[in-house]
Write a structure and sequence with these properties.
104 residues; AhpD-like; 2 domains; mainly alpha; globular
Length: 104
């Protein structure tokens, strides 16, 4: 995975117990159910789109690519938000995904 944002790295060093607990929580919720890695990655993209979390969307697009998700599947996941959250937020999410997908 590419380098994490500088502030995230600083947080990790400054508050290692909180960071480790957060990581453990994430691992627990990812592995406790029946969804496969690819499906979970697409759900995280959808959630980041709806919540309009640019940094999270960047991170989840990277992780999705590592899980074997295609660009087309990423775009489709974001576009599914269009009728619910509207055109401007969906276009913002598309541009954030492109930040990462254009690198690849």
């Amino acid at each position: 995975m590419s380098q994490l944002p500088k502030y995230f790295e600083e947080f990790k060093k400054r508050f290692p117990d909180i960071f480790n607990a957060y990581e453990k929580l994430g691992e627990s919720v990812h592995t406790m159910g029946p969804l496969d890695e690819k499906t979970r990655a697409l759900i995280k993209i959808g959630l980041s789109t709806g919540a309009q979390l640019e940094g999270a969307l960047h991170s989840h697009v990277r992780k999705a690519l590592e899980a074997g998700v295609t660009k087309e599947e990423i775009y489709h996941t974001i576009l599914l938000a269009l009728p619910t959250i509207g055109f401007p937020p969906t276009m913002a999410a598309m541009s954030w995904a492109d930040d990462i997908l254009q690198e690849k």
